[in-house]
């Protein structure tokens, strides 16, 4: 029954998104582009904006940000980070200085940026099928994003398959629904120009890698560790090079793709702590990880993906 309902929601999304975009100027760019790791040089520290931690505490004034892990839908996490980023706010925003300009380097470490750039969030993608199984009523993180937004219409078949060390980038994705379980359509009660907007980085994890027995909580092949770290570097570089200072990441491949959650969380932290990503590239780094366990097995201390990522990452300064 749920699959039938979600298929209907997918079809309604396909039908209504073009209608919504009739009310949105073409300056809201939805065209998706491909970015290959081999083409992206390591980040240049001279371009780092140097954000510092503003909250009081032992790390106050230190360059970087404190990771937060939230039991939230990725779109909801992005809206929480920057609640007033809408179609109209992007259209009316003044241009932000580009990385490396003196105007950005002067006092940007102590002053929050204006919401002229949407939050960038990670789409945990299927490398071969645009939107995963969203047209067939499947429900994982990628499908949830497509049901709620214009993303599915920006992921064209010509962009697939996504090469192992490549990612897709969609500059503007318009959110048209509330999250599950309601999935309430926002438009037309919310005018098109007032709909929330994010940017999306689409990247695929390794599909069902070999894991070590008996606990199956680590990769069996060192090659898979290295590939996962390369994927994380790619995601972070794309976010920075596209000008994003607030990012929402996730449990890359830790669902149906069978990647080991504890090791993936550890690898995210290792990469974020690499010298390339130090110095305050981001105001906010959030992991949106929906808890896949309930009751005594759920929560921050549970053995679900949320608990695993929370204990590995929450509160670390990067």
TrEMBL record:
Region (Disordered), start-end ranges: 89-115
Entries under Pfam families matching the protein: PARG_cat_microb
Ranges of biased composition (kind: Polar residues): 101-115
Domain Microbial-type PARG catalytic residue range list: 60-174
NCBIfam families noted in UniProt: TIGR02452 family protein
Protein name: Microbial-type PARG catalytic domain-containing protein
């Amino acid at each position: 029954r749920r699959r039938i309902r979600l298929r209907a929601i997918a079809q309604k999304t396909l039908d209504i998104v073009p209608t919504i975009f009739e009310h949105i100027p073409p300056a809201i760019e939805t065209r998706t582009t491909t970015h290959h790791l081999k083409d992206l040089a390591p980040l240049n520290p001279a371009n780092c904006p140097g954000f510092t931690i503003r909250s009081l505490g032992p790390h106050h004034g230190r360059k970087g940000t404190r990771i937060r892990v939230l039991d939230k839908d990725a779109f909801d996490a992005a809206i929480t980070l920057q609640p007033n980023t809408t179609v109209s706010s992007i259209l009316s925003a003044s241009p932000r200085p580009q990385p490396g300009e003196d105007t950005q380097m002067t006092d940007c470490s102590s002053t929050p940026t204006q919401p002229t750039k949407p939050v960038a969030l990670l789409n945990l993608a299927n490398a071969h099928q645009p939107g995963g199984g969203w047209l067939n009523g499947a429900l994982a993180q990628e499908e949830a994003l497509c049901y709620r937004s214009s993303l599915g219409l920006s992921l064209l078949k010509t962009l697939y398959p996504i090469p192992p060390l490549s990612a897709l980038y969609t500059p503007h994705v318009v959110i048209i629904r509330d999250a599950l379980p309601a999935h309430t359509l926002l438009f037309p009660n919310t005018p098109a120009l007032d709909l929330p907007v994010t940017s999306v980085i689409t990247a695929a994890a390794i599909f069902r890698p070999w894991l070590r027995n008996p606990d199956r909580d680590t990769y069996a092949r060192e090659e898979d560790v290295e590939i996962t770290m390369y994927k994380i570097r790619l995601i972070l570089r794309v976010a920075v090079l596209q000008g994003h200072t607030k990012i929402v990441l996730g449990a890359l491949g830790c669902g149906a793709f069978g990647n080991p959650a504890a090791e993936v969380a550890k690898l995210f932290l290792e990469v974020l702590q690499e010298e390339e990503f130090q110095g305050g590239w981001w105001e906010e780094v959030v992991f949106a990880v929906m808890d896949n366990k309930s009751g005594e097995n759920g929560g921050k201390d549970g053995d679900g993906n949320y608990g695993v990522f929370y204990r590995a990452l929450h509160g670390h300064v990067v």
